[in-house]
Amino acid sequence: MDYFKMPLTIWGLFLTSILNALFVPIIAAGLIILLLDNVAGTQFLIAGGKATIPGGDPLLYQHVFWIFGHPEVYILILPAWGVVSDLLSVFSRKPAFGYKVTAICMCTITAFSALVWGHHMYTTGMSPLLGKTFMFLTLLISIPSAIFFFNWLGTLWRGALQFDTPMLFSMSVMWVFGLGGLTGLYNATITSDIYLHDTYFVVGHFHYTMAASVMFGAFAAIYFWFPKMFGRQMNSKLGKVHFWFSFIPLNMVFFNMMVMGYAGHHRRIFDPTEYEFLAPVLGLNNLMTTFAFILGAAQGLFVLNFAYSLLKGEKAEQNPWKSATLEWTVDYPIPHGNFAVVPSVYNGPHEYSHPNVKERDWISQSEPMPT
């Protein structure tokens, strides 16, 4: 199998493993420096009145943290992007639009992710020229993100959409990542970020982009691959109830959080009722809390569905989703080593509705294409 016959899920896992190998050691080094300052008397991060020698800089830790912290965003989101790209194709019954371009965009984002950490630090007093550089690079990284987002829309366009539970969660990732990505442009721009920095707007943006996208992407993956992992099908009706009781409350929490942040509500206020300018939006705090509890309780439906399906779920056929990728050619239970012999790969991962295939609307990667 060459690179451009790999499912996009595998692309995401491959790229996130590269970022893990490169950037986890950086935060490890930062923690070692912090430990040495606290227990061994070094002064890497200590300056001012507490320093006995010159040269320490407390901002060093913030740089080290964000050099890891921003690639960490992509460490988490790249597998979810891959899952969504593949599942939209499966449940649209058509090839993933711009498959190669999507893979290249994911590679480009992986490379750029190492160059944009400074947009977290606009308010630290960094050089204006350095801040403008980080702003340019951060806005630049939005271009490949927008391209593969439009590729997702292209996959859906005129497809034979099947709204099974994995598809619902995949489409929800499009929504939450779209909102999170667009609001990220305000945080990338120095002039607006200075106002929005450390407010609920940043918290809402981050949770839309990361927490919601990764969580919904993970749910899509679990509902999709559960039959292959355990040989049983999860309950579809309960899965759809779980989806709606997760999707609606999540938006009510984090969208209103951005509204409050735009109004100036900072993320670390002990008692917001002390601030007169926040009085018009304080009711949203109560609303967000209510929906946050609903969101948390809804995950009990997933746990119930998972446990019941694991024990008493309907037996799944070998390829219940009629998917073209190789894992669905393996019988359950999956044998040691997955494949008795290394399979020959003839097709890409998204061969759906191909005009040469007459009897069904898909063909496996391991089947020769009819002529």
What can you see in these coordinates?
The chain has helices at 8-39, 59-92, 99-112, 128-156, 165-188, 190-196, 200-230, 236-262, 282-312, and strands at residues 232-233, 314-315. With 371 residues, it is mainly α. It has 3 domains: 1-162; 170-321, no CATH class; 323-371, no CATH class. Helix 2 packs antiparallel against helix 3 (99-112), helix 5 runs parallel beside helix 8 and helix 8 (236-262) packs antiparallel against helix 9. The longest helix has 34 residues, at 59-92. The chain is globular, with a radius of gyration of 24 Å.
Protein topology:
Layout: H1 8-39, H2 59-92, H3 99-112, H4 128-156, H5 165-188, H6 190-196, H7 200-230, E1 232-233, H8 236-262, H9 282-312, E2 314-315
Count of alpha and pi helical runs: 9
> Which outline best applies?
globular
Low-confidence stretches: none
> Nearest-angstrom radius of gyration?
24 Å
The percentage helix is 55-70%
